[in-house]
Design goal:
Blueprint: E1 34-36, E2 39-44, H1 59-81, E3 94-103, E4 113-123, E5 126-135, E6 138-149, H2 152-160
Antiparallel strand pairs: 1-2, 2-4, 3-6, 4-5, 5-6
Length: 168
């Protein structure tokens, strides 16, 4: 999947510093989400420092994967619903309004995780995405993201500031 652009690759530079999915955050997770039919998919391999207890992933990281894959999916779903190509103007960028995560079983460290999403609803400025994380063929986490479109005024302000917005 690395031969095509991820949803997050279309984010304008001034909005690409998110710790979870920002391609311009040198310390971030760099989550990369793609369409896979009617679902979306991202892959992430937790590192030893993502530990909760020996052998298992910290739950906050798993929530971050659900969160950022969900907002990326929301953006792609909105473009698709409007019949527009990703990255076309005006930009469609989404933020989390609600994040729900259920931890079904411990998620092991040292394996590639598959993060999957399915769009449940696209209505106005809101997109609802159901998601799950698979480790070693088993679903270990389920979640839901309610994402809302960044208001045009906020986007205009972010894009008008120039420089490296959000960078410390």
């Amino acid at each position: 999947m690395d031969d095509k652009k991820a949803f997050q690759d279309y984010y304008p530079d001034n909005t690409a510093y998110c710790y979870g999915c920002g391609r311009l955050n040198e310390h971030g997770h760099h989550i990369r989400s793609f369409w896979d039919g009617d679902e979306t998919v991202a892959y992430f391999t937790p590192q030893p420092y993502h530990i909760a207890v020996p052998g298992y992933v910290y739950g906050g990281l798993l929530a971050s994967l659900i969160d950022c894959h969900g907002t990326g999916t929301a953006s792609a779903a909105a473009y698709r619903a409007e019949g527009r190509p990703m990255g076309s103007e005006p930009p469609l960028r989404f933020l989390t309004a609600s994040l729900h995560v259920d931890y079904l079983k411990p998620t092991p460290l040292g394996v590639q995780l598959e993060v999957r999403g399915r769009v449940k609803e696209v209505k106005g400025r809101k997109v609802v995405v159901e998601e799950w994380i698979v480790a070693n063929g088993e679903v270990t986490v389920r979640g839901e993201v309610v994402a809302v479109r960044v208001p045009d005024e906020m986007f205009a302000k972010l894009l008008g500031e120039g420089g490296e917005a959000g960078k410390a």
